[in-house]
Amino acid sequence: MSGKHVAVYKEKERALSPRSSGYPLFSLQREMNRVFDNFFRGMDLWPFAQSEKELETFDPGVDVIETEHEIRVKTELPGMDENDVHVSLSDRTLTIKGEKKEETEDKGKNYYQMERRWGSFYRSVPLPTAIDTAKADAAFKKGVLTVTLPKSVEAKKGEKEIPVHA
Q: Bridge partners of 148?
């Protein structure tokens, strides 16, 4: 994770943690984390990687769109192809996982450079309604995965309003 990502994560952690305020040891820990974040910020070399780029994680975003008849899930997977992606559906949960591999090679008269990067991802999307699994479809086009999940007949029947009594 890059320093930028670490700082964002720590901000979220601080906001969500009830123990983050009012206790001296947690204040000390927070201050030490801040000191180390500031120390490594802007440096080309990080403790366990050649560069900040190497520390980035591959965590693709997912858009979920629900219509009356279906649920569509889209995710951008640049640099990948359909063979790198696995999609499964079970128990009202859609799972998208895969591995991104990148290799670049640059040869010149007096130099040779070879870089390899890889990372895997796993996304689990809870679905709000029952799906007709026989009609589920996944398409991969220009780096965008679109999973179309038609709602089951029971799900299409709609919502029923329940009156509230005092």
A: 72, 137
Side chain identity at residue 44, one-letter code: D
User: 119: closest CA among 147, 89, 77, 88?
Assistant: 77
| One CATH from 3.90.1030.10, 3.40.50.300, 3.10.20.740, 2.60.40.790 for 58-156 | 2.60.40.790
Strands 93-107 and 112-126: antiparallel
What contacts 162, CB < 8 A, 6 or more positions away? none
Taking only the tens place, the pLDDT of each residue in 49-106 is 444 444 455 678 899 999 889 999 999 998 888 998 999 998 889 999 988 877 888 8
Six token digits for residue 163: 């009156």
φ, ψ (nearest 5 deg) of residue 126: -70, 135
Q: What is the pTM of this model?
A: 0.57
Give the integer Cα–Cα distance in Å for 110 and 76: 38
Q: How many C-beta atoms surround the C-beta of residue 77 within 10 A? A: 19
Task: Give the span between the Cα atoms of 97 and 101, in whole angstroms.
Answer: 13
In one-letter notation, the amino acid at residue 124 is S
